[in-house]
Design goal:
The protein has one domain: Rieske Iron-sulfur Protein (3-layer Sandwich), CATH 2.102.10.10. The protein has 1 helix and 12 strands. The structure holds FE2/S2 (inorganic) cluster (FES). The site of FE2/S2 (inorganic) cluster (FES) has 12 residues, from loops.
């Protein structure tokens, strides 16, 4: 009976928790920001990239469309929205994954590929994107200008 249960559950468990590719391991990625996140003014954002020595990527915590929990991102934005809440987002547009850019004049994140726009809290301002930006899981680093983001060390 135990063998039957294990045999039946194994494919489901592999689907739910797929093994990372060989050469990848979970890690906490320390990122140096241009400005400490607690010093960002409301409506201000700063862009960052995944460190390349060693090669790393961030792991999206949630999302929809072309972004989803477990998908990789190689950059992001730390932002304080207009209400003063801090967010750390993957840089990828939720439509088809193009990197978004900060539009500091309009106070939005804009995608150059098909015109999607997002509020600074990550919610959709204008389609075709139908889902908000993906959050990255993060904590404050040891120094004011660093954050530590859930990610992967890539073995190539
Ligand atoms: S990838 Fe951003 S609007 Fe299409």
């Amino acid at each position: 009976m135990t063998a039957t249960i294990v045999t039946g559950l194994a494919p489901i468990l592999v689907f739910l928790w797929p093994a990372h590719s060989k050469g990848q391991k979970k890690t906490s990625v320390t990122v140096a920001l241009d400005k400490p996140i607690d010093q960002l003014a409301n409506g201000e954002a700063t862009k960052f990239a995944a460190p390349t020595t060693p090669n790393t990527a961030f792991v999206m915590a949630d999302g929809g469309g072309d972004n989803g929990a477990g998908e990789l991102a190689f950059g992001g934005f730390a932002v304080r929205d207009t209400k003063g809440t801090a967010h750390v987002f993957a840089i990828n547009c939720s439509h088809l994954g193009c990197p978004i850019a900060l539009n500091s004049t309009a106070g939005s994140f804009d995608c150059p590929c098909h015109g999607s726009r997002f509020h600074l809290d990550g919610t959709v301002l204008h389609g075709p994107a139908a889902f908000p930006l993906s959050d990255l899981s993060w904590t404050q680093g040891d120094t004011p200008n660093t954050i530590v983001v859930d990610g992967l060390e890539l073995g190539f």
